[in-house]
């Protein structure tokens, strides 16, 4: 059944991606416990996605404690979970149509911070309908999080998804704003409240493990050319992890391509005060009478 401008096949692709993501995210969350390696959970979830769908919409993000986004283990990462707050954010695509969802697994004893993000997401979903302004949805998120005594991460937001595009409009802020756009039937959006016990701002760290194609053009260096060929063939415009690249000189080639403006790197985003961050996320399609949650 079509929804607005989305035809039957497109809607079914989104639904399939969402169903696979729900299964994989639940399985991955069960693995998170002290002593388990980040890389083990990332590789498990990504392999399961490839088994059940067309591929990953982006590398599994495993953001711990003050990390909010773009944290994914490197090729030889042996970091283990401890008494951490762990945000798992995964993406699935079916023919390029994307579902994006996240959960927080709390090993730190701060379960109310997790509840704040989850309840904020529920409130936001209740507010989604045709004609609702994105700033109004953000106000619902902010009210719940502040009601818990925490702060929303103000410079992160939810976002639209489209075929082969993991981040597009409209943006869904995590606070109330006067400026915004009206949601329309057929919009596909990932709503993702972030809550923190800090001041609510993230900045870029030094570490990068996630990249995407920004400018497909010819390059001279052989290793860089091989990496670019793999990226364009396998991942197109979707983000990928450096550990997914087969070349023996992958890191050097990726750096060269980033310097030339061919690839875009995503530094890990961290809460400014070094405080804990929780996250909850669903992808929805806006329908005539509200929204259809694809990832529950």
UniProtKB/TrEMBL annotation:
<dbReference type="InterPro" id="IPR028595">
    <property type="entry name" value="MetAP_archaeal"/>
</dbReference>
<comment type="function">
    <text>Removes the N-terminal methionine from nascent proteins. The N-terminal methionine is often cleaved when the second residue in the primary sequence is small and uncharged (Met-Ala-, Cys, Gly, Pro, Ser, Thr, or Val).</text>
</comment>
<dbReference type="Pfam" id="PF00557">
    <property type="entry name" value="Peptidase_M24"/>
</dbReference>
<keyword id="KW-0479">Metal-binding</keyword>
<dbReference type="InterPro" id="IPR000994">
    <property type="entry name" value="Pept_M24"/>
</dbReference>
<feature type="binding site">
    <location>
        <position position="281"/>
    </location>
    <ligand>
        <name>a divalent metal cation 1</name>
    </ligand>
</feature>
<feature type="binding site">
    <location>
        <position position="159"/>
    </location>
    <ligand>
        <name>a divalent metal cation 2</name>
    </ligand>
</feature>
<dbReference type="GO" id="GO:0006508">
    <property type="term" value="P:proteolysis"/>
</dbReference>
<dbReference type="GO" id="GO:0004239">
    <property type="term" value="F:initiator methionyl aminopeptidase activity"/>
</dbReference>
<dbReference type="InterPro" id="IPR036005">
    <property type="entry name" value="Creatinase/aminopeptidase-like"/>
</dbReference>
<comment type="similarity">
    <text>Belongs to the peptidase M24A family. Methionine aminopeptidase archaeal type 2 subfamily.</text>
</comment>
<keyword id="KW-0031">Aminopeptidase</keyword>
<dbReference type="InterPro" id="IPR036388">
    <property type="entry name" value="WH-like_DNA-bd_sf"/>
</dbReference>
<feature type="binding site">
    <location>
        <position position="281"/>
    </location>
    <ligand>
        <name>a divalent metal cation 2</name>
    </ligand>
</feature>
<keyword id="KW-0378">Hydrolase</keyword>
<dbReference type="GO" id="GO:0005737">
    <property type="term" value="C:cytoplasm"/>
</dbReference>
<feature type="binding site">
    <location>
        <position position="192"/>
    </location>
    <ligand>
        <name>a divalent metal cation 2</name>
    </ligand>
</feature>
<dbReference type="InterPro" id="IPR036390">
    <property type="entry name" value="WH_DNA-bd_sf"/>
</dbReference>
<dbReference type="GO" id="GO:0046872">
    <property type="term" value="F:metal ion binding"/>
</dbReference>
<feature type="binding site">
    <location>
        <position position="100"/>
    </location>
    <ligand>
        <name>a divalent metal cation 2</name>
    </ligand>
</feature>
<dbReference type="InterPro" id="IPR002468">
    <property type="entry name" value="Pept_M24A_MAP2"/>
</dbReference>
<dbReference type="InterPro" id="IPR001714">
    <property type="entry name" value="Pept_M24_MAP"/>
</dbReference>
<feature type="binding site">
    <location>
        <position position="100"/>
    </location>
    <ligand>
        <name>a divalent metal cation 1</name>
    </ligand>
</feature>
<feature type="domain" description="Peptidase M24">
    <location>
        <begin position="12"/>
        <end position="203"/>
    </location>
</feature>
<feature type="binding site">
    <location>
        <position position="70"/>
    </location>
    <ligand>
        <name>substrate</name>
    </ligand>
</feature>
<dbReference type="InterPro" id="IPR050247">
    <property type="entry name" value="Met_Aminopeptidase_Type2"/>
</dbReference>
<dbReference type="GO" id="GO:0070006">
    <property type="term" value="F:metalloaminopeptidase activity"/>
</dbReference>
<comment type="subunit">
    <text>Monomer.</text>
</comment>
<keyword id="KW-0645">Protease</keyword>
<feature type="binding site">
    <location>
        <position position="167"/>
    </location>
    <ligand>
        <name>substrate</name>
    </ligand>
</feature>
<protein>
    <recommendedName>
        <fullName>Methionine aminopeptidase</fullName>
        <ecNumber>3.4.11.18</ecNumber>
    </recommendedName>
</protein>
<feature type="binding site">
    <location>
        <position position="89"/>
    </location>
    <ligand>
        <name>a divalent metal cation 1</name>
    </ligand>
</feature>
């Amino acid at each position: 059944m079509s929804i607005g401008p989305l035809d039957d096949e497109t809607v079914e692709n989104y639904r399939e991606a969402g169903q696979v993501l729900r299964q994989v995210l639940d399985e991955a969350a069960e693995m998170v416990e002290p002593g388990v390696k980040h890389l083990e959970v990332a590789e498990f979830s990504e392999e399961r996605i490839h088994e059940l769908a067309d591929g990953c919409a982006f590398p599994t993000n495993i953001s711990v404690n003050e990390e909010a986004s773009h944290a994914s283990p490197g090729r030889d990462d042996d970091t283990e979970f401890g008494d951490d707050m762990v945000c798992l954010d995964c993406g699935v695509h079916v023919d390029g149509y994307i579902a994006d969802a996240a959960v927080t697994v709390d090993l730190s004893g701060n379960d109310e911070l997790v509840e704040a993000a989850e309840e904020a997401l529920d409130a936001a979903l209740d507010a989604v309908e045709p004609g609702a302004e994105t700033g109004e949805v953000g106000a619902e998120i902010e009210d719940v999080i502040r009601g818990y005594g925490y702060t929303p991460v103000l410079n992160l937001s939810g976002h639209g998804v489209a075929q082969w595009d993991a981040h597009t409009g409209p943006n869904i802020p995590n606070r109330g704003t006067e400026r915004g756009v009206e949601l329309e039937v057929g919009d596909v959006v990932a709503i993702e409240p972030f809550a923190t016990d800090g001041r609510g701002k993230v900045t870029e760290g030094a570490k990068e493990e996630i990249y995407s194609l920004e400018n497909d053009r010819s390059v001279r260096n052989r290793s860089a050319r091989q990496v670019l060929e793999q990226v364009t063939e396998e991942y197109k415009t979707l983000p990928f992890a450096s550990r997914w690249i087969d070349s023996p000189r992958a890191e050097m080639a990726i750096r060269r391509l980033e310097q030339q403006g061919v690839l875009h790197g995503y530094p890990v985003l961290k809460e400014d005060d070094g405080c804990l961050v929780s996250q909850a996320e669903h992808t929805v399609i806006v329908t005539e009478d509200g929204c259809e949650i694809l990832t529950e």
